[in-house]
Amino acid sequence: MAANVLEEDSMEQDIESPVTIHQPKLPKQAREDLPKNINKECAKRKIQRYVRKDGKCNVHHGNVRETYRYLTDIFTTLVDLKWRFNLLIFVMVYTVTWLFFGMIWWLIAYMRGDMDHIGDSTWTPCVSNLNGFVSAFLFSIETETTIGYGYRVITDKCPEGIILLLVQSVLGSIVNAFMVGCMFVKISQPKKRAETLVFSTNAVISMRDGKLCLMFRVGDLRNSHIVEASIRAKLIKSKQTKEGEFIPLNQTDINVGYYTGDDRLFLVSPLIISHEINQQSPFWEISKAQLPKEELEIVVILEGMVEATGMTCQARSSYITSEILWGYRFTPVLTLEDGFYEVDYNSFHETYETNTPVYSAKELAEMASRAELPLTWSVSSKLDQHAELETEEEEKNQEDQNERNGDVANLENESKV
Predict the structure, then answer these.
(1) Are 53 and 323 in contact (CB under 8 A)?
(2) Fewer CB near the terminus (10 Å): N or C of the chain?
(3) CA 417, CA 229: separation in Å to the nearest integer?
(4) What is the mean pLDDT of the chain?
(5) Residue 24 and residue 293: Cα distance in Å, rounded?
(6) Per residue in 102-149, pLDDT tens?
(7) SS (H, E, C) the chain
């Protein structure tokens, strides 16, 4: 009964019309003296995102002196480069190696005197039909790429050429393996797969099963599903410890079903991820009025394996306080058609308003405990009543004792007379 009364009170609180606050009318001189840029500065003031809506981290690394660490992991460095730089390095590596070995082939021919016996049928050159640097460069390309046109061939009278052929073949294979492997990893990266994993534009806070919950929606636009999908959420908020230490951008876990297994998703259709605001939640003491004043950011991370390639994919997004709607729910997007279910992604980001208490979860819990446990009030009142009765009985006993003492004194006086 008490719970019903509490629910009715909260419903009445929600449906109350907003109160219009009238600003006091100031004199003209006072209005002119007010700073005109206050509202503009407040409007321009925005919370700096830690993670952007598209999932890219808004963090830049500066003053990195130990740049040699990037060269120790050159493969990852090349994969992380942008496509234009990656293609430029790809072309430059092959071009430099062809030019380098072409120069060596030309030097061998020049030092052996092959250039002086061009067209001499009695002379056995190191490489047949090599008559200049251009032909040496072409022979280097044919050797490293194993084209083998058959016009320029190495002879058995040139041991230094045979050794160079072996060295170029081995190094060429290494270059091919490295660069082709780098390009293959670059192409097969699952970053673009995350483009078809979508998050709702806003997060909402409303009641679900009698509890205040923070919710957001995720979906997959492709028919090929994400295998072993899991969801995580982090609260990014600066804090100050009891000792006075300031921790910028402190990360706090937001439980979205880790202990119950609800964080592991079967992402066939859009799902609403719910976080129950309880005593362990960082939103325990945040009410509707206090929420816009908070400088916080919620980072959500969706991970899983791509079904087609088996590679791990990660999609990210974030919500700041202006993107958290209090008292709203998501519009349903799943409908039952003739023999199948249909998802309407036009309504994926849509929300509708619902009756939700404006109090924090802590205040709601305190109100519920007071409504459900009137025993504490009755016990205290009964103790007070018992104490009052005891004082009244003591006063009566004292009055009776005084009357008795008075009667005894009168009898003694009469006996003396």
Answers:
(1) no
(2) C
(3) 110
(4) 81
(5) 24
(6) 999 999 999 988 888 888 888 888 888 888 899 999 999 998 988 878
(7) CHHHHHHHHHHHHHHCCCCCCCCCCCCHHHHHHCCCCHHHHHHHCCCCCCECCCCCECCCCCCCCCCHHHHHCHHHHHHHCCHHHHHHHHHHHHHHHHHHHHHHHHHHHHHHCHHHHCCCCCCCCCECCCCCHHHHHHHHHHHHCCCCCCCCCECCCCHHHHHHHHHHHHHHHHHHHHHHHHHHHHHCCCCHHHHHEEECCCEEEEEECCEEEEEEEEEECCCCCEEEEEEEEEEEEEEECCCCCEEEEEEEECCCCCCCCCCEECCCCCEEEEEECCCCCCCCCCCCCCHHHCCCEEEEEEEEEECCCCCEEEEEEEEEHHHEEECEEECCCEEECCCCEEECHHHCCCEEECCCCCCCHHHHHHHHHHHHCCHHHHHHHHHHHHHHHHHHHHHHHHHHHHHHHHHHHHHHHHHHC
**The dihedral formed by the CA atoms of 20, 330, 209 and 294, expressed in degrees to the nearest 10:** -50
Convert the pLDDT of each residue in 379-399 to its tens digit.
344 445 555 556 666 666 666
Give backbone dihedrals phi and psi of 157, rounded to 5 degrees, phi first: -95, 15
Predicted confidence at residue 276, as pLDDT, reads 94
Contact of 319 with 57, CB cutoff 8 Å:
no
Q: Residue 20's Cα: distance from chain center in Å?
A: 38
In tens, the pLDDT along 18-60 reads 433 444 444 443 344 444 443 444 444 567 899 999 888 988 8
pLDDT tens for each residue of 174-195: 999 999 999 888 888 777 788 8
- Residue that has been written with the tokens 């050794």 in this structure: 163
**The model's pTM:** 0.67
By the 10 Å C-beta count (0-12 exposed, 13-18 middle, 19+ buried), 6 is classed as middle
Give the pair of three-digit tokens for residue 354.
């619902």
Q: Which two three-digit tokens encode residue 181? A: 């492997």
Q: What is the CA radius of gyration of the chain?
A: 41
Residue 324: is its pLDDT beyond 70? yes
Amino acid code (one letter) for 240: Q
